[in-house]
Amino acid sequence: MSTDAQQIATIKSQTLTRMAEITAQPKPTYQIDGQMVAWGGYLAQLQRTVDWCNEKLAGEAPFEERSQGYS
């Protein structure tokens, strides 16, 4: 079973792959059968997903805090 961090990393990887596909062959915004398809908005939504993943993964990473005492 994968950990939360592994699942988030997978989501980030899949989202970046989709972003690469979209930007490799950009498409215009269009309307079909009354439905608007806005690729720029979709790309922005994907970027927000990547940002969310980065925030969550940063919280999972171990960190070291240095301090110095004075007498």
Estimate what percentage of residues fall within beta strands.
Answer: 5-15%
Helix content: 55-70%
Tertiary shape: elongated
Structural class: mainly alpha
The topology string of helices and strands comes to: HEEH
Look at the structure and give the mean pLDDT. 89
**Treating each run of at least 4 consecutive H or I residues as one helix, how many helices?**
2
Mind describing the biggest β-sheet?
2 strands, antiparallel
Q: Low-confidence stretches at least 5 residues in length (pLDDT < 50)?
A: none
Strands, total number: 2
Give the neighbour order of strands across the main sheet. Answer: 1-2
The whole-angstrom Rg is: 19 Å
Question: What distance separates the N and C termini?
Answer: 49 Å
Give a written overview of the molecule.
The protein has 71 residues and is mostly helical. Helix content is 61%, strand content 8%. The chain is built from 2 helices and 2 strands. The protein has a two-stranded antiparallel ribbon with strand order 1-2. α1 (4-24) runs antiparallel to α2 (39-60).
Give structural attributes:
71 residues, mainly alpha, two-stranded antiparallel ribbon
At a glance:
The chain is mainly α and 71 residues long. It contains 2 helices and 2 strands.
Write the layout of secondary structure elements.
Layout: H1 4-24, E1 30-32, E2 35-37, H2 39-60
Antiparallel strand pairs: 1-2
Helix pairs in contact: 1-2
